[in-house]
Design a protein that fits this description.
Belongs to the metallophosphoesterase superfamily. YfcE family. The protein has 172 residues and is mostly beta strands. The protein has 2 helices and 11 strands.
Length: 172
Amino acid sequence: MRLVVVSDSHGDRDILVQLQAHYQGQDVTFLHCGDSELRQDDAVFEQMAGVEGNMDWHDQFPDKVMLSIEQQRILMTHGHLYGVNFGLTNLLLAGQAEDANLIFYGHTHQLACATHEGILMLNPGSISQPRGQFQKIGGTYAVVDVSEQAYEVQYYNRDFEAVERLKFKFNR
């Protein structure tokens, strides 16, 4: 299973269209972790699940989405309602309560991935307004490959090029 995870595009619709075009014809699931600043009825969301971020003023997206894909349980949320700027404990507890094995979030504009008690927690960073240590990359998204043996995470820049130093493998 391959997941393309993006967040915090902040009105940059073109990058989402380009992202979908780049992976056209491939067996991927597109996920947006909020702050798209687009309406839920925008055509980009015909192929992409999304959640409400703190900058999405339309109140059309859900605050969180639970997805079951190929025996994987995915909790996706923006993160602001779980206080992710101050730690991931509340988000981890929410994921455990939902029996999730993958938790995707945004809000901080900083990429991050780690496993906690067998659960992959991932922030793809901001595709349009990055912050923090990897800000100079100019925006990131993540591709997550899930197999029975491992979670493999590769971060990409806005030109769809793999950022080699941002490749991670977590055994399951």
